[in-house]
Amino acid sequence: MRLSRLPSFVATLVVACIVLAPAATAQEQVELRGGVTDRVQQPLEGYRVAFRAVGLVDVIITPPTDVEGRYSVMVPIGRQYLAVAVFSPTGRRIALDGLAPIEADPGVADVDITVPIDARPAASAAGDPLDGSDRRFLAFVEDAAFVAGSRAEALVEFADLGAADALVATYVAAKRFRSLPDFEFGARLGFVGVDFAAPSGDRTGLTDLDVWAKYDFDRRLWSRAGLAVGALLTLPTGDEQTGQSADALRAELFGAARFDVGRFLVSAHAGVRFNDDGTIFGFDVDGETAVAVGAGISLPVADNLVFLGEISYEGERFVAGEPQAELLLGADWKPFREGSFRLAVAAGLEDGSPDSRAIVGYAFAF
């Protein structure tokens, strides 16, 4: 049916709607744009900015930034928007504080965001103080580094125990849930084979199961530090006849920190471990409350290679026992975006520690 056959007022209304609809749509939205840089003004590619509409629950997330760190997104006009967070290419959420709301009108200015990390090539291997790509070996749990999403890690360890040699295969899994972005949860379990001198011979079995949860302060106290507190529970799932388990429950409360001091990342932790009574090789032992402390350093030497150093100490776990202390040197080589090879050697500094250890592993982030 042609417009000439419609009543004149209907035809006029139809034509007006067709002509004015694009103009009304254009007036309903405005482009919000800007750039994302790190603390030394290097542009960050692949980052997304989350804006919240003031007074509403609506959240708008921009497309990834381009190679120059620029972004743009269309938002409804006439509202105020506040940049509340930035998401890295791996999905890590970086909270933003102290920014003023922006009025979305045709004359809106660029919203430039500064993210408190160092994206220079010399620092990219170590990266953000909270980045979990170079997790510690001796204190994997008691580390202020957090996984961005999920991480699986497989390790094979060769240990000289003095009176025996041990081969331990360990699997580690860690996860951050979107509904609880400030927490990391994880578990660690291994299988051990021990070669004792005659007459005991070879023995095999599971190690104890570690489960943990820790809280990420997300730079609320200092922009150049990663801070965390957490709890670790060790369940006696192992066979005490292998010497890798004491058939005793252990709980730990700890605090951890990572500090960006330029080219290096320095980490440290301190905790208290509560040890239940147990049994080792058929002998009853009385549990003690022990202090556990440690420190580490990360040195990036290339874009995908980090050298690691660690030292750890734990007081006597049982009455008449020996303290444990180790010194470790290692490397984290990341030839792929999602995965890294991990190598380390450690030497015992106290009688309660293995004489020496060599560790080989692969970690996969997803």
Q: What's this entry about, in short?
A:
The chain has 366 residues and is mostly beta strands. Helix content is 7%, strand content 52%.
Characterization of this structure:
The protein has two helices and 23 strands. By secondary structure, the protein is mainly beta. The chain folds into two domains: 23-115, Aromatic compound dioxygenase (Protocatechuate 3,4-Dioxygenase, subunit A, Sandwich); 121-365, Porin. A hairpin with a 2-residue loop joins strand 17 and strand 18. The longest helix is centred in the first third of the chain and has 21 residues, at 8-28. The radius of gyration is 28 Å and the shape is elongated.
Topology:
Blueprint: H1 8-28, E1 29-38, E2 48-53, E3 59-61, E4 70-76, E5 80-87, E6 93-95, E7 102-103, E8 113-115, H2 121-124, E9 150-160, E10 164-177, E11 180-196, E12 202-206, E13 209-216, E14 225-235, E15 250-260, E16 265-275, E17 278-280, E18 283-285, E19 289-302, E20 305-314, E21 324-333, E22 339-348, E23 356-365
Parallel strand pairs: 1-8
Antiparallel strand pairs: 1-4, 2-3, 2-5, 5-6, 5-7, 9-10, 9-23, 10-11, 11-12, 11-13, 13-14, 14-15, 15-16, 16-19, 17-18, 19-20, 20-21, 21-22, 22-23
